[in-house]
Batch of 2 targets.
Target 1
Amino acid sequence: MRLYAGLILFACFIGWALYRLLVKRDLGAHKIHLQVGLCFMSAWALIYWFLLS
């Protein structure tokens, strides 16, 4: 289950970004949230890479 936690967080982030981009059309106003989310997801990706390799 712990392995899927990062994937679930990634899916939620992508869903939020697509909602802001396609429905609300105000993703540009949330640039700082987008940057923090991408930084967080890249940290998760590095952790997964090191743990699974």
Target 2
Amino acid sequence: MKGFAVINTAHEEDVKRKFPFAGKLWGIDRFIGPYKEEDMEFNNCIGTEIKIPYGFEKSKVKRAYKIGMKMYGYVVSKEYNINYNPFFHHSCLIRALDFLTVSLGCDLRLGEVVIADASTYEGRNSFRLLLPFARRIILVTDNKKEIMEEAEHAMINYGTSVAVLEDPVKASERADAVVIASDKPHHKYIVDMNRPMLFFRFFKKPEGRWWFDNVTINFKDYYNLSSIHAQGYVDINNKRPFWISAEKDGFRIQNIRKENIIIMNR
């Protein structure tokens, strides 16, 4: 049976649960090697997590990688950038934005979403992932020429209404939702809007209630997973690197979070 291993950092409480003596001897966790959690079955494959306790991480990651490859044949990790596909993760977050907006009564199939800065890697990915269902997309950027050709191509192939603007105030007049991935201080107006918001980065955190930057997923009886588990499943089954490929096979977004705070359960 095919398999994959996800390498993650072990939190202090995880180490104490696995090794009760670690809480009694100060600094002992630095000398605890990578350890494997129980196997999980995802349809036609086996997955597991290999945890890395604090201390000497570089050597522990190398060892965890060898364990994962030997026992499962494939290793993936977002934290340590091993076979990580950010596009897959972005597709999961865009799906979460879809769920959030619908639950708040502003379906993007009928509304308008603003992306700033649309010329960044995250901005471009979000634009491409929103195209199949968003009614109108406003791309906010100072690099209009850089993305104009892509916007025109999208309008021709998808029929989506797309506008490319520099003025963040004008661009956001009718925004129902926001994607923010900007390093530009003058995009502060967009960040401060109280709208459903997928937050990748900015020099300050949003002030509104409905922003998020991550999700927790589940698969049948396995809870509190991350998108990297779904990516491992998709990778070894040679499926298209989109969240929908995992969703069709039983993965679900369990909750939508801003940092460690849950803003919506599903």
